[in-house]
Amino acid sequence: MTKHVRWGILSTAQIAQDELLPAFRDATNAKVVAIASTNDKVKHIASKFDIPKIYGSYDELLEDSGIDAVYIPLPNSLHSQWVKRAAEKGKHILCEKPAVLNTREAEEVIETCKKNNVMFMEAFMYQFHPQHQRVKEILISGEIGEVNIMKVSLSFYLENQNENIRMRQELGGGSLYDVGCYCIHSIRNILNTEPNRIFASQQKDVKGQVDMSVVCFMELDNGMTAVFDAAMDRAQIDYYEIIGTKGSIRVPKAFIPQMYNGEAQIIVNTTDGAYREEKVLGHQYILEVEYFSQCVLNGEISRSMMEDTIENVKVIEACFKSIEKETFIDI
Question: What whole-number distance in Å separates Cα of residue 331 and Cα of residue 311?
């Protein structure tokens, strides 16, 4: 019998229903054995995904010694609290992004996880799609020359705004936390560098509660520059582009290729007139679940993966500070 990690799910969040529970079901080394919620839908969800145990509270689930790891898709403002409580109960943790809202929370989360010898990963699922590794290979090959700039756009139109937690500041709402965190992470991840100076601006909703869109310019440690825009008040856009001295790479399905059954596309143009399209297939949520589950089974995870949460939220904080001060901010 294949060894697998026994998972518990905290809440019936839509992301869990739409993406993660199907991924757990299809993963080769993971099995969901419990779900916790006071929501009336929990029995239906447990039946649909063949989850044997239902708990009426998150604490009850965390007390279950038959659970190795938990997935936390709660509102952003609750992530830090429940990551620490899960860690204190000896559970490994996969937490939805953004796992924390500031650097202080990030440092507390990582310290608690290390102290209790549990693994923690922020669920930036996009990075597990093989298209991004292929992009890195093309960059290393020198095909597009010396890289000058990376541009990232990620947006969607938020329906039923009055009823959505993304519109509530106290729950960690807003476009920067919701989709801007992906833009920041992808720049850092793909270019393998850190921003050292940024300038950001925002547009708020009509009530002035949360940012509906954010635009940011970054100067990076390796001399490159990057620009991103993130929004939840416009048509869906989902891409990044990297431009070098000899050509460019465009990735038009960068973050949500599951909308195309996992098929992504890489477009390469070079200054000598060459053009090609590469198709890359992958199911990033399944790959994410299998990666973290294998880390649990092996008893090890890259420390850089844990520390990455701190580095990403530092940039988010700098964006908010730049917006407030209306000036460039050093990181």
Answer: 10
H-run or E-run covering 211: strand 211-220
Q: Per-residue pLDDT tens for 47-81?
A: 999 999 999 999 999 999 999 999 999 999 999 99
pTM of the predicted model as reported, rounded to 2 decimal places: 0.96
β-sheet bridge partners, residue 5: 30
243-261 b/e with 16+ CB inside 10 Å = b?
bbeebbbbbbbbbbbbeee
For the chain, the C-alpha Rg in angstroms (whole number) is: 20
pLDDT of residue 2: 57
Residue 156 to residues 25, 175, 212, 273: CA-CA distances in angstroms? Answer: 28, 10, 10, 34
Express each pLDDT in 160-177 by its tens digit.
888 899 999 999 999 999
Which single residue is written with the structure tokens 């990232």? Answer: 152
Domains of the chain (ranges plus CATH)? 5-123 (3.40.50.720), 127-286+314-330 (3.30.360.10)
H or E segment and range at residue 229: strand 225-231
Within the chain, which residues score under 70 in pLDDT? 1-2
Joined together, the tokens standing for residue 63 give 């007390």
Torsion, Cα 170 176 181 186, to 10 degrees, reads 180
> Residue written as tokens 């705004």?
161
